[in-house]
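Protein modeling request. Please complete all fields; requests missing the sequence field cannot be processed.
Requester role: graduate student
Desired output: 3D structure, token encoding
Chains: 1
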Amino acid sequence: MNTTAFVLVVTGALLHALWNLCAKKASGGLHFVWLFGVVSLIVSFPFGWVAWSEHSQQLGVQAWLAIIASGIVHGAYSLVLQKGYRESDFSIVYPLARGTGPLFAVLGAIIVLGEAPSLRGWLGILAILAGIFLVSGAAQALLIPSPRARAGLLWGAITGLFIASYTVIDGWAIKALGIAPALYYVLVLALRTVILAPQALRNPDALRTQWSANGRYIVAVGVLSPLAYILVLFALTIAPLSYVAPVRELSMLLGVLFGAKLLRESFSLSRGIGTACMVAGVVLLAGIQ
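Delivered output (289 residues):
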């Protein structure tokens, strides 16, 4: 992975952890998801408009299939993630979601996109995944299966499956089909917003209540989420998906640190060891040109 792609992915990881922290504090549902989606659409629309004027010719049948598929998966991902945050702890749901995501994504990249990581790449990927398992607290949650921990494992893993799904779809759209990242992202976001609109608009009072209670978090997520995501899309244009996906999961490590500092959650020895594994994995991937 070259330096430019590495910087893009790490910056995106930081922004991703920040917006998820805001989403956890809000712990909203469909109305929260729809409102921050509208904010994201407003923020990113000018960039999408410029991209449309320059790259609309890229939108063939396959491109629209990718956009529709990604929009549906992104909508489901957002709702499942919020469900997980309501049912369990941030320090379980977030790292597990981000941890299982690259595992599924790497498998998908190998099977669907035909990518073949080098030996050093595999070592880096495995080190990051081992670190993710330790930092996520999955082992402790399995040994002490409280209802809240079980809920975190369930919703975290389901979220990870959706993350892997849209990562592979987006990798295919950006790398194989050559769709401009800004154009692709805005169209996917617009479609997700349209899909969720009928349910969201059915209850205007709930929308007003959500805005009144969590307006600052809605704006924060609405701005940080598209920025974090489009950085990763640009990284996909210059680096293999099987390298981008695991490095992106540094957001999980940052999320655990934010949880310890801001949500007063524990940072155990196993999480320290997991952190070291992740750092080693990132160093291995960053050294691959």
